[in-house]
Write a structure and sequence with these properties.
The protein is mainly alpha-helical. The chain has 10 helices and 2 strands. The chain folds into 2 domains: 114 residues, no CATH class; 93 residues, no CATH class. Helix 8 packs across helix 10.
Length: 231
């Protein structure tokens, strides 16, 4: 293109004197890997004008969006997907974004691509490690597929978060591990609904806490009542 100098991106990313490179220099992405593109340092990132940064992001966005499509087709909701702030069905895109917004997106998309759980294979490895860590502590997870582990964790996490919201001290007390064990046992019983498990856990919390607080004369009788709002 007339008026544009073309350099291979390794020159720009690794060793080029960025202070001397003008915005009219067009980077050449031919043969540049995703691994190279996700490791641009802050100084180099700031040297790019909107057009050059957009060209880098188009390549990164394409790689990220392919991973998102594969995860969604598999029905997976991974930590990488949730932390990417991409709504279901949404995709990374440079359209309509200014330079500042593109810099923010660079951080967002590279964090996603660097995450193990941005791929189906990586997510399954991640779940297998979690499954093993639970089983090593005596917590059995029904089923062996990635979806079995995911469903177990989703339900268990929702219930534990509900308990923690009602009584944050559970995080600091010695009850967290016992609570997780009890929840996991209930979750593995297919005949129990989520609200049934909440009520059982609430009953356990009430009994445990009241026994501990007797010597302090603290009345917790109303604290553990479940209302329709709580459900």
């Amino acid at each position: 293109m007339p008026g544009w100098d073309i350099y291979p991106i390794p020159f720009l990313l690794y060793g080029g004197n960025m202070a001397k490179i003008k915005n009219s220099v067009r980077i050449n992405l031919s043969g540049v890997s995703i691994d190279q593109l996700i490791n641009i340092n802050v100084t180099e990132l700031k040297s790019y004008d909107r057009d050059n940064l957009a060209r880098i992001l188009v390549k990164l966005d394409s790689a990220a969006n392919k991973r998102i499509t594969r995860l969604e087709k598999g029905g997976y909701s991974t930590p990488a997907l949730r932390s990417s702030h991409i709504d279901r069905g949404g995709r990374f895109s440079v359209k309509g974004k200014n330079l500042k917004e593109l810099r923010s997106q660079y951080i967002q998309v590279t964090n996603f691509l660097k995450s193990e759980t941005s791929t189906v294979k990586g997510y399954k490895k991640f779940l297998n490690r979690i499954k093993k860590s639970f089983e090593d502590k005596g917590v059995k997870i029904g089923g062996n597929t990635a979806k079995d582990v995911e469903n177990f964790l989703d339900k268990e996490t929702r219930i534990y978060d509900w308990l923690k919201e009602r009584n944050p001290i559970i995080e600091e007390s010695g009850y967290k591990y016992e609570a997780m064990l009890r929840i996991s046992e209930y979750v593995n019983k297919s005949d129990l609904t989520e609200i049934s498990i909440k009520k059982k856990m609430n009953k356990w919390m009430k009994k445990t806490y009241e026994e501990e607080q007797k010597r302090h004369s603290i009345d917790t009788s109303n604290f553990f009542d479940i209302t329709e709002e709580d459900e």
